[in-house]
Amino acid sequence: KETLILSGRVVVEEGVHVEMLDLPLPPVEASAAKLEAQISEEKFILLPQGIEFQGKLLLSWGGSQGQSHPVSILIPQKVSPERQIEGQASVYMVNSIAGEKALLGIKIEWRMTEEEALPVEISPPGADGCFSLCQLEQQVQKVLTKELTLKLPEPARLLEQVQTGELCSSLVGGRKGLLLVGLLELDLFYISEDGQEKCYQTKFPFEEWIAAASPEKEYRLKVNALRLNHSPLPTMAPGQELLLHLELDYSLTTLRRCEAGLPPPTTAPTRRILVEKIITREPLEYYVEIPLSRPPGFVADRQLRWEEGVVEGRAERGAVLLKVEPLLTWEYKNEYNQIKMVELRPVLRWVQPSPLAQPGQLVRAQFAGTQMKLRTNAGGELILQLLLTGELILSQEELRVVPLQREVARTEPLETEELVLFNWEEKLPFLAQSISAVHFFLQDFRLSQMEEACFLEGKVGGVLTYLDREERRRLHRITKEVWSKIPAALSRNRIIVPVLNKWQCRPLPSWPWEQGGVWCELAVRLLVFPLETEDKEVK
User: Domains of the chain: which residue ranges?
Assistant: First the structure.
């Protein structure tokens, strides 16, 4: 047996909810012999009030007759935003009431999971099958800073507040690395020139290359916190741009896929997690001809390169729907013997037969080789002949109790990092025209453990040198008590060392009724190491 540090989704809570629904039926249903119902397009959402289930209920009778109804059911439950929710719904009862209504019983099985690094014992694949596991290689906490430039739809006297709404984010891998693609909703509250309070809602797209990437690895991104700062603006001229400072705290996890067996647990400790059991692996082959526009001055083809992009798959009964969006780089020579390059982004869709495929299965397509050739047809058009070969892997998620290693091996400990941000407004006796120098240091940092949370507390000291309005040099000493909530799991059996990572200060605009001030921002990196202990028998 071996032990691997896996990133597993641990089941922390689960339950079953039953809901009765009555739906109206058209008059023609009165003579129908049998009612049938099924649920599709299932979706689970975590809300402050509990778990919301959304889906589409298809009610059918008499063969091809039927109607669909949207379904939304709220399950009251204490939830945590750090958790993930999933489940499945089914119809266990369908009755007709006097030919006018349909009474349905909906059964919803749900479970909440959390990502956790676990030392899991593995074995060679055996009678229980082969599992696709995610080996944890690295997990780091990072901060993304962006400047957003916006304009209000009309001139304004005062910008009161900027609120952030929903943030949609995703990771896209490419030859340059990992691209973070986001769409942020913003609500800007302001006072117009005629004295009315208004709200301007907008969406701001952004992109940022955040790390190098390897095609052999998988990456997961989780947004932990979002902050949006802006300097106070007493007045805004017509058409004046508003500069916002966006800070995004996120964790980036690097995983490597491996295949192994899971031995049955014989002794404690164990953990109940979701794992992917491989159902089938099949050879994959796809041929397509893509017409290309002849570039100006084209004389001869030189080179074609393939770079894999987005690969998506959906399993249906007996087949898999595949979509691939690669990046093709085409180099050619023109009439001046110059080498030119064109980038192509075709969208390839096809149906791949797979006898064991069923809805709900997970799909992974791995391309081992590509063959590309450019030819000219009888009409003089350029045709790209493309042949893809690889492997199609179908797997099914299942709950399984896995054995954990009793004591983590004494090899090099897994080191993780957490970045904590502190910011505040430091009052000054004089207006700061510019900042000459600033130095910070950390004092008396400690951890305070509560029942369900852990707090990092301490003091930040510093010395600030700045120039006032008359350009006289001023010295200001900083002493600030700070605290931040960190995940309780981070402090459990861990040694945490806070290290000052970076800082900055910027002068705040002057107000008639206030003295000067500066906006201080600090990033403290927490070096987190496992606390190794030995279990010894006491006689």
Answer: 7-115, 131-260, 280-399, 409-539
